[in-house]
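lol ok so funny story. i was supposed to be doing the assay writeup but got distracted and ended up predicting the structure for this chain instead. priorities right. anyway since i did it might as well share w the group, maybe its usefull for someone
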Amino acid sequence: MNRDQGSVGQDGGVQTFQLTLAGCSANAIDVVNDALSGSDCHIQHVEDLSSLARKSPAGEDGLHSMILAFLPGGLDSREIDVHVEILACLAREGKVVAISANKDDAALSVALRAGIPLIPEESLNAGVVRRLVAELGSMPPPAPDTELWNRRVAYRPEHEHLALDRHAIVSVADGKGKIIYVNDLFCEISGYARNELLGRTHNIVKSGYHGKGFYRDMWQTIAGGQTWKGEICNRRKNGGLYWVESTIVPFLDKGGNPYQYVSIRTDITDLVIAEERLRRG
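and the output, tada:
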């Protein structure tokens, strides 16, 4: 393991920690070294995620630990499943952040299914690295869980994907708001086929219940790079209304501009109807 003198301790961040770089490019490594210049940091380099998966991810001697894992572009479905399995298991042991080839949809799928943050490589800079490391200060060092690590082969990413499809209404839109992905539950609850939704905006399910100010505030929030949360009334293809509790997360490019919006929703129609009945007495 290499020991680099790396700067975070002076402004209140973590002073002693372990950072593993998995499959990172020379440019990403230079950014990390610049960001951590002056801090007490143990840096480990591994060739790729498969190399890391053969080792226990726990930090040495109870150190705070973080993994920066590069996801290559153009992963096929089998490679996506493998990456999800490894990253989800590693995330149970400590903080994991994925770095993707810029605007890569396969990498976005991996990050969503593994439940970890995703940063396009073009957006990685010293400030981002320092913020990530500083966040470790609020996390207790994880105790090694040898039993969990030894059971990693039993984890099946398709189970997690199935659970997501059955619980959450998920869609992804490009920077112009056009839908580029919907899951099965989105199609089921809206009544639209997938090919009717792709390439359209979410206006296709707009109910007319909310005023212009509601949508203006929403778009100002996510266009500004902030997460938006709230309740929305949508309209099905057959004209019926349904309510969702929604979280919209923007993904930003190097210039800080959103290039994708990921929306995750829960159907709360029954709850809204019940509350309305209570109000009416």
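Residues 77-91 form the longest helix (15 residues). The chain has two domains: 2-155, 168-280.
back to the writeup now i swear
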